[in-house]
Amino acid sequence: MDIRAQVSSVFHLDKCIGCHTCSIACKNLWTDRRGNEYMWWNNVETKPGTGYPTKWEDQEKYNGGWELVGTQLRLKQGGKAGTIGKIFHNPDLPTIDDYYEPFTYKYEDLTNAPAAKDQPTARPVSMISGEPMKIEAGPNWDDDLSGSNVYAANDPGVIQLTEEEQQQLFAIEKMVMFHLPRICNHCMNAACVASCPSGAIYKRGEDGIVLINQDKCRGWRMCVSACPYKKTYYGWSSGKSEKCILCFPRQEAGEAPACFHSCVGRIRYLGVLLYDADKIEATAMKSDGELAAAQREMILDPFDPQVIAAAREGGLADQVIEAAQNSPVYKFVKQWGIALPLHPEFRTLPMLFYVPPLLPLLSVENNGTQKISDDFFTTLEQARLPLMYLAGLFAGGNQEEIKAVYRRLIAVRIQRRAASVGDLPEAELQNARELSGLDDAALDAIYRMTSLTRIKERIVIPPMLREQAIEAGMDPEEYKQGMGFGSRQAPKRRW
Amino acid sequence: MADMILFGVFPYVALALAIGVGIYRYGFDRYSWSSQSSQFLESKALFWGSIPWHYAILLILIAHFLAFLVPSSWGALLGSPLRLVFLEITGIALGLTTLIALAILIFRRIGNPRISAVTSKVDWLLFASLLLQVATGVYIAISLRWGGAWYVHTVSPWLWSLVKLNPQIDYLANLPGIVQLHAVNAFFLVAIFPFSRLVHVVSVPLGYLGRPYQVVIWYRQRRNDY
């Protein structure tokens, strides 16, 4: 057993209101430089929709992630020699037109224009070339466009649905959508790491954060095509690829990552998971439908004495094990089993999990008046989103995974209705509880964690123990004198 | 005197710049070490430019280096007329390939405003120098036949004399002006190598073939076997 700790997250999609505060917090901190305008390390997509970059989920188009070739796991864009062979021109690389051309407006024309009969206008100009341009796409261009036949209808997840299911999605007055916030998944079997010819991308051993060493990156841009989530971005001005760093400088100071901290809906949970690194490869080779369950299987119980002993032996500090025991992510993913990885079939073993959206109640028409449906709570049979669509997103097509999660979420709703209003028959509550497989205490805990907890319970940052790491390598006094001294240069092209 | 400076001194200056500035840049501004790929902004024309350019120029450079490093073996290789003709034709074909590919790449930079915006002054200088180098090379290959053979008795000894710190500039001084231009411009490219995006040529990532897919870095020594 090779036990490692991973800082992981859960996003509760029923709570996301799509306000993009997370995206703005991230952008202001990290990606407001030239060449990074288009980089949304955190973005919020409308689902169904084509996402960002457009149709990123379609690996027939982008060849991202891994594939099983016989009994071998191989990058879909090609093996190692194939990757090197594509270094002069990478056919799988998206171009900026798959994202959008960053633009601004010539605001100075508003004040500098000579007096004339017409109103001066601020024309849009490209932030790359500075030339006037026609804006045809931008960040969140398809925001809330759930019924769009340009965006929603071209969602790779929608295309694979049956005609009937598609009609259910797009029927008037039953139109349905939800928001999908995305950051880097800091995968266990990261395709970006595996694809980097320079070896610049690495996973931090202590906390599993995946980073690109900016000094080692040579701009071979293989990570951009290899990441199936398109969460590494090529800096077209600096010639370096960049990605979400899970705000590790903030975490090392005990602060939540900016997108977590700023989340208005408090949908984001962060905590440590312990997992067995020896199982990574075997897990990543499971069949599509088994992947979500297999990944859950890899996550270890931080209360199990055997696990604790093995973790200590592997060098994990007691504080980290304690953080794993308090981890809300462990509860969501493993204890309650209501959070699933996004597109597990890409086989990168993503460590960001989502609670699938149950969505608000649907009103029904009854003799010309709208009222809430008789089945007060969504039932599986009346799920507003086709289960197949959700299974395509979160379970490699395995609808049983989604059903299990939904039964639990429905049980929580029914239990809360019974507790707060008390108008539901005991039999219905009993039935929901049995179907969910969770007891009253667990249902209560889910409710509490979903709606009442404060930041310290939602976001449990392990002590990152930098001081000990420094002590192990060099004299702390020397470190104190040396670090931060000397030339720090701006991350932009100079030569 | 001018010959001495161009053929006897400048190569050393160029090499000193390449090594000195190269080490400085690698040591103190490694962040800047990048291929500066522009494929993200324009992919289609790059395909027709970059791929033929890189493969053809690599083969041509290998031939130049082999003829310089092992002139006797190279000369023996060309001993048979059939092999000489074959190499001559291959060389001209590759040279024309680089010329066409470079033309595509240059037109792409001029014609596409996005690409122009990410092209620095040094990039333009580099392109001009490369174009001069490739154009003179092709011209020499066509007008001064059997370069593969005479290179061994002229350029190769000159380069070896430079290596031996005893520059014999006569080898080059007696060659036609176009060959001299080609030789001096080659060292000009060496000289601007550390100042330009050309630095990526020494970052060939062959280590990738041997390493495991996943890279995990620890702050501290965790176990003995790590």
What would your notes on this structure say?
The complex is a heterodimer of chains A (495) and B (226). Chain A has a single domain (7-96, 137-480), classed as Alpha-Beta Plaits. Helices cover 34% and strands 15% of the residues of chain A. Chain A has helices at 21-30, 59-62, 80-85, 108-112, 156-159, 163-170, 191-195, 222-226, 248-252, 258-262, 280-284, 291-298, 305-313, 318-325, 328-335, 387-394, 399-420, 426-436, 440-451, 455-458, 466-473, 476-482; strands spanning 3-12, 43-47, 66-69, 72-75, 103-105, 124-126, 178-182, 201-204, 210-212, 232-235, 240-243, 268-276, 299-300, 340-341, 352-355, 363-366, 369-372. In chain A, helix 16 packs across helix 17, helix 17 packs antiparallel against helix 18 (426-436) and helix 17 crosses helix 19 (440-451). The two termini of chain A are 48 Å apart. Chain B is mainly α and 226 residues long. Chain B has one domain: Fumarate Reductase Cytochrome B subunit. Helix content of chain B is 69%, strand content 1%. Chain B has helices at 2-28, 44-69, 71-77, 81-111, 113-117, 121-143, 147-153, 155-163, 170-173, 177-192, and one strand at 216-217. In chain B, helix 1 runs parallel beside helix 10. Strand 8 of chain A pairs parallel with strand 1 of chain B.
Output the keywords.
heterodimer; A: about 500 residues; alpha+beta; Alpha-Beta Plaits; five-stranded mixed β-sheet; two-stranded antiparallel ribbon; 22 helices; about 35% helix; about 15% strand; B: about 230 residues; mainly alpha; Fumarate Reductase Cytochrome B subunit; 10 helices; globular; disordered C terminus
